[in-house]
Amino acid sequence: MTEPSRNPPVDLALLGGEFYVTGGTLRPDAPSYVERRADRELSESLLRGEFCYVLTSRQMGKSSLMVRTVRRLRQEGVAVAVLDLTAIGQNVTLGQWYDGLISRLGQQLNLEDELQSFSAAHPEWGPLQRWVTGVEQVVLERFSGKVVIFIDEIDIVRSLPFPTDEFFAAIRECYNRRSREPAFSRLAFGLLGVAAPSDLIRDTRMTPFNIGRRIELNDFTEQEAAPLARGLCADDRAASALLARVLYWTGGHPYLTQRLCRALADTVFQPPTASTGPPPLAPPVLPRIGTVDQMADKLFLSRQARDRDDNLIFVRERILRSEGDVAGLLYLYRRIHSGQLVPDDETNPLVSVLRLSGIT
Amino acid sequence: MGAGDRIQNPERPRGHPLGLCRVHPQRNARLRNRKRPRGGPAAGRPAAVAARAGELHRPLPEPLASILDPLQYFLWEGEQDNLGLVTELAEALKNLPAGLPEEPDQAASSQRPPTPENGESSASVSPGLSRPPAMEAIGGAVPLNSEYYIARSTDGDFQTAISKRDSIVLIKGARQMGKTSMLARGLQHGRDQGIKAVSTDLQKFNAEHFKSVNRLYLAMAESIADQLELGVEPASIWDERRGPNANFERFLRREILSRLQGPLVWGMDEVDRLFVTPFGSEVFGLLRSWHNERALDPSGPWSNLTIAIAYATEANLFITDINQSPFNVGTRLNLDDFTPVQVAELNRRYHNPIKTQDDLNRFYRLVGGHPYLVRRGLHELATRKVTFEHFEDQAARDEAFYGDHLRRMLVLLVRDAELSEVMRGVVNNQPCPTSESFERLRSAGLVVGHIPQEARPRCRLYTMYLRRHLK
């Protein structure tokens, strides 16, 4: 079972679960980051100046994708700002919210004081105008190259005490102005969140979503997931066999895949306990395919899992506590589950609830 | 050790039975009701050095008690203690001019329910020990220098997380599982490594502070600024034109992190108070955004901040949405019960008030490994010198030593009629009917087991008590 390793040595500190990340954003240099088609698509589209949005269910790796893209864009010399809407909050007035956007934009681009004095110099303007003009006259003025503004956790706008249609309309306006004002061609927006475009803005005449590019963030393919094998064990062939079994269970779902890999790695590199004595010098015993099955069963299918696993709980809550027609939702899912094809109709709210829950 | 059970100075140098402490009037119901002890400190300075000889097991008579009880004093049992007494006296006198450490509010004190039983007991001492261990208050945080602190694996995990500068550490467990004590030790571990550490106990905030998210942030900011002594006045920086999140974020980033230029650990205790506010998710959202910020800019200010969040899972008894978890990010530490080995070790440190292995097993069955119940029980046995049979007999009584704990549990439980009904079933050997009720009872520390069908009361004490009270 324990063939000598022909692999380059893996940093042992990263083994035993540390290699994998379950929950939260992966650092841009995380060894378990899995590159997907969306990685290239997002950075290339933004470099072309397109309006992009990644609207998908939770734990699909949106934030990690964003962090990687930010790094790549910065390496290309792009000025990048990330405006995380949870940081701005919900118990705010319309004025405070836009000021929050301006302030975060300033922080991220090292223009905090400039933007602040610019806002202060124009008290006669409304908050939205201060935001748009600040971008135009301070940010695009300061940077002669490309500027990308990410807006993360965009679904927060639904919990704000004021309407935000204007905010989206203003993004669209930035794209419309390109023909007249070339500076705007250097500006691109990227939006990320757990929502359907129609949840964010109702008015189809003002929406930017029909002029932008939807970036699909899909589950890991077998090929994409290959780097994950490295954390499982040192033997290449054994590791990819294990990984194939992991993917059999998770279908490549990013969180579930990392979760199962992490649990497997933990069984291999378990710190020695008093009963097992000092750490053996021999390579640890490799998990078998059967271990993957047992582990998957314990993590995702046992009774405890129903109440413990973040992702499973999230899916359940999103479906069962959704505002709409729960029976219709379950009926639709039953059809999909039994193998029938259902049209992916963006205007059907049930389809979008199923998609955003991550279940389909 | 006399009234050591109601005074604590968590940072008292180890091994000074003559520790002299500021009296904390709010810490104890009995103290609250009487005047500041005569000769007692007006500004936190000790004014008396005390030793006690003879009749060590009996409470002091008034008016002596009210003067001396708030102080921790040396016990003199016979000639063998002469040398110890003189040494300690000399030590204490030598240290006086420099001043004893001010009681750090953050270290361990929180307003826990008092344990009135303690007030009556003068500690006993095992014969032959020249310097008997000080008896300590049971309930609330275990002092940093305590001989009675049993480190669990989570202590090590927490300290590692602090050394590694994790961004968010969640410490969760039911009430009285030792969260506050572990938090204090983790922060101290950080300080020992030169990491700045502050802590904010949300239990100390009043209703006014929870009126709005803005008030809360301001109170948190003041708590942090105070402890770091940077001379920053949050209220003067707060700009009403900004939103609450923006103000707090800006304060931490510009006034704290950029000034410190080094790592900071911020411990937040009793965070479950936030769960019942309308802005809880907003606060958690802000903290999570800092976590994400680190990934974006690993060399930025937020990489210097570790936030340790301790919260009691009892909240699940009255929060019906079980999934209201503050985070899906960060390092999660779940406090476990003591193992039988740990209980035996604690018994040893109390000088074996439980004499036989058989009694030790019975004790373990009675209270499980519940940290508070174990410690309270051993304290009781050690100070009262009662037989184990007597102890066992008294344990589930309302008026006895576990009374406060048991009543509080009952009060929380009966708020929810449905859950009470489920629990009544469980103490009568029935399973939990739903996984939701099971999960709520389990996280509240009332039942154990892996699945609803296997639910059983956490310990025999609970079975005994609840069988009588849930009829």
Topology:
The complex is a heterodimer of chains A (360) and B (471).
Chain A: H1 37-47, E1 52-55, H2 62-75, E2 79-84, H3 85-88, H4 94-109, H5 112-121, H6 127-142, E3 147-152, H7 165-176, E4 187-193, H8 197-200, E5 213-214, H9 222-225, H10 236-250, H11 254-268, H12 289-301, H13 303-308, H14 310-320, H15 326-337, H16 349-357
Parallel strand pairs in A: 1-4, 1-5, 2-3, 3-4
Helix pairs in contact in A: 1-2, 4-5, 4-6, 5-6, 10-11, 10-12, 14-16, 15-16
Chain B: H1 29-32, E1 51-53, H2 64-68, E2 74-76, H3 82-95, H4 105-108, H5 116-120, H6 153-163, E3 168-173, H7 179-192, E4 196-201, H8 213-228, H9 234-237, H10 244-260, E5 264-269, H11 272-275, H12 280-296, E6 305-312, H13 315-318, E7 331-334, H14 340-349, H15 357-367, H16 371-384, H17 388-394, H18 403-414, H19 417-427, H20 435-443, E8 447-448, E9 456-457, H21 460-469
Parallel strand pairs in B: 1-2, 3-6, 3-7, 4-5, 5-6
Antiparallel strand pairs in B: 8-9
Helix pairs in contact in B: 6-7, 8-10
Keywords:
heterodimer, A: 360 residues, alpha/beta, Rossmann fold, five-stranded parallel beta sheet, 48% helix, B: 471 residues, two-stranded parallel ribbon, 43% helix, globular, disordered N terminus
Structure characterization notes:
- The complex is a heterodimer of chains A (360) and B (471).
- Chain A folds into three domains: 108 residues; 178 residues, P-loop containing nucleotide triphosphate hydrolases (Rossmann fold, 3-Layer(aba) Sandwich); 36 residues, no CATH class.
- The relative contact order of chain A is 0.14.
- In chain A, strand 3, helix 7 and strand 4 form a beta-alpha-beta unit.
- Chain A has 360 residues and is α/β, with parallel strands linked by helices.
- In chain A, 48% of the residues lie in helices and 7% in strands.
- Chain A is globular.
- Chain B is α/β, with parallel strands linked by helices.
- Chain B folds into four domains: 103 residues, no CATH class; 182 residues, Rossmann fold; 56 residues, no CATH class; 66 residues, no CATH class.
- Chain B is 43% helix and 8% strand.
- Chain B contains 21 helices and nine strands.
- In chain B, the strands form three sheets. A five-stranded parallel β-sheet of chain B has the order 4-5-6-3-7, with helices on both faces. A two-stranded parallel sheet of chain B has the order 1-2. Chain B has a two-stranded antiparallel ribbon with strand order 8-9.
- In chain B, a hairpin with a 7-residue loop joins strand 8 and strand 9.
- In chain B, helix 6 crosses helix 7 and helix 8 packs parallel to helix 10.
- The longest helix of chain B is centred in the middle third of the chain and has 17 residues.
- At the A-B interface, helix 2, helix 3, helix 4, helix 13 and helix 14 of A face helix 10 and helix 12 of B.
